[in-house]
Amino acid sequence: MTNELVMLVGGAASIAFIHTLLGPDHYLPFIAVAKARGWSLPRTLGITAICGIGHSMGSIILGLVGVYAGKALADLEMIEAMRGDAAAWVLVAFGLVYFVWGIKRSQNHKSHSHLHSHGDGTFHSHIHNHAASHVHIHEAKEGVNLFMPWGLFIIFVRGPCEPLIPLMMIPAAQGQWVGMVMTVGVFTLITIGTMTAVVVAAMLGLRSFSFTGFEKYSHAFVGGTLSLCGIGMITLGL
Length: 238
What we know:
The chain has ten helices and two strands; from the N terminus they run H-H-H-H-E-E-H-H-H-H-H-H. It is mainly α. The chain has one domain (3-108, 134-236).
């Protein structure tokens, strides 16, 4: 392995780590959805990793097409920018729809009373709140629905890894195909590793916090988080 290749691979690892860590859209959606849906840690990590692979694969495929077709780097970066804008607006729209649904759902979680009779002829009533008392049962049923994981996956596939294509083009231009494979592999592994590490740290940290009283707004919070991530991608280039 030449010094140039070592520097390239090391640079790919550093760029992947910083790019992922500075982009909250790489991990906040998974943290928010997992908390609202009551996903287990293994399931959350699995979905995060799969979305991370899809996130990288979109740019890898575009980069390979560019290398094979001889496209200029500027053209590929323009296409990546267009993909990024489209993914950001999809994320904003998806989040807004989910936010509205979450608000409507929270309005249905109001306290109400139940009247119970006993064998001795006595009656009593108690206040009941589905949002607080049965949140785990309801969320477990909703977790069967694969809409949210697939929605996140589709958005992440559309979202580009902007720094990856230039890193691919450098060794490709020199005919160093092994170097290109190593660069892509390291970039992808570091990206997925950083995403999952942040998600694990956040989920373990949130276990010590009580959200009693706010459960009914959890889905609205998810929608707002998704939209804010999309807005951050558009306005700040995150």
